[in-house]
């Protein structure tokens, strides 16, 4: 299976590293394109894959084309790519905010849309995968296998992609925001930065893994560590009084609304 990535950026690198490292494909099967020679050299020497500065040539033999340029670059690159695609090629787009119907624009092109997130850079990503109108179950399987090499891949409908964008696409930023706040408090309480960073990170990872392994709900796990009159109760009561949960819900809905706006141009 020949796979060509259009745009040799951070996300493309995460996926290339994952699929080659996990032997999903061989290096000979992968090609990336970019406008930067330095980026292409980085991929050539780092992963032993083919590279090109010519998008049309690079997709001519590709069974799968991954659109991994910024969304604003798409209108400029798509005409040259589209005219050079093999008729049976699958197009996988990781570009935020561009609907599959915009990519296919009435042509018989099979498109799968993917919303990844940045922990893919360390093989711990979370991606929503949605079939465009003509994409098959097998196309979804291909996308799940590629994204599964860099974390968790979940199939959703394309209508759900805006919600996925709000939840897991932008999600790492919410966790960083919480960590930022926890570390600011730790500083005010006089803990040394090295110590508080270690403890805060281990706490976030440990809590997520506890929830994963126990299979219990977030509210259930929280109740277990919140005894009335205790320290956790004092903290959670303050968060509740200040409407933090409502704010988080409003934040995700705002992200979903913005994602819809971007998709509608
Ligand atoms: N990063 C995330 O958290 C995240 C999450 C979800 C979705 N995405 C999506 O993933 C896509 C890639 O994101 P990224 O962070 O990897 O972006 P990026 O690092 O900017 O990668 C895009 C690459 O494409 C290159 N490029 C520009 N014009 C090109 C052309 N005509 N032909 C070929 N390559 C060209 C860029 O070069 P220059 O830099 O020299 O312009 C850059 O190296 C975006 O569409 C984004 O919406 C990203």
* DSSP strand tally: 8
Do you know the CATH topology of the largest domain?
A: Rossmann fold
The fourth-level CATH homologous superfamily of the largest domain is NAD(P)-binding Rossmann-like Domain
Low-pLDDT runs:
none
Order of helices and strands: EHEHEHEHEHEEHEHHHHHH
Q: Roughly what fraction of the amino acids lie in strands?
A: 5-15%
In total, the number of domains comes to 2
CATH architecture of the largest domain: 3-Layer(aba) Sandwich
Number of helices: 12
Q: Which class of secondary structure composition applies to the elements?
A: alpha/beta
CATH class of the largest domain: Alpha Beta
Report the radius of gyration as a whole number of Å: 21 Å
Helix content: 40-55%
If you average the pLDDT, what whole number results?
Answer: 97
The set of bound ligands, ions and cofactors reads:
NADP nicotinamide-adenine-dinucleotide phosphate
Termini Cα gap: 34 Å
Bulk shape:
elongated
Largest beta-sheet details: 8 strands, mixed
Describe what this molecule looks like in 3D.
Helix 4 (74-84) links the parallel strand 4 (64-67) and strand 5. The chain is elongated and about 65 Å long. With 265 residues, it is of the alpha/beta class. It has two domains: 3-158, NAD(P)-binding Rossmann-like Domain (Rossmann fold, 3-Layer(aba) Sandwich), CATH 3.40.50.720; 171-263, ProC C-terminal domain-like (ProC C-terminal domain-like fold), CATH 1.10.3730. The model has no long low-confidence stretch (mean pLDDT 97). It has an eight-stranded mixed beta sheet with strand order 3-2-1-4-5-6-7-8. The chain is built from twelve helices and eight strands. Bound molecules: NADP nicotinamide-adenine-dinucleotide phosphate (NAP). NADP nicotinamide-adenine-dinucleotide phosphate is lined by residues 6-12, 33-36, 39, 55, 68-71, 73, 77, 94-96, 115-118, 169.
